[in-house]
Amino acid sequence: MQAPLSRLSTRLGRNVMSNFVRNHSHGGVPGENLPFDIQNRHKLTLMFTVFIGSGLGAPFLITRHQLLKK
Fold this sequence. Notes:
Membrane topology: Single-pass membrane protein
InterPro entries: COX7C/Cox8 (IPR004202), COX7C/Cox8_sf (IPR036636)
Subcellular location: Mitochondrion inner membrane
Distance between the termini: 70 Å
Keywords: Membrane, Mitochondrion, Mitochondrion inner membrane, Transit peptide, Transmembrane, Transmembrane helix
Shape: elongated
Pathway: Energy metabolism; oxidative phosphorylation
Strand content: under 5%
Largest sheet: none
Order of helices and strands: HH
């Protein structure tokens, strides 16, 4: 009983993934699957610095804000 269901599930999973890859791939261009542009090096550096800096700096800014509250 479980073997036919297992085979059906495996076949369905493979078909879904192969259709996804076939319909959503555009030729292996580096960076095409990223949610940001990697062509402009200076903009990428600035955005990376802001993204990482905000995450690393937030605890220090929050602590400073709490210590300066009256």
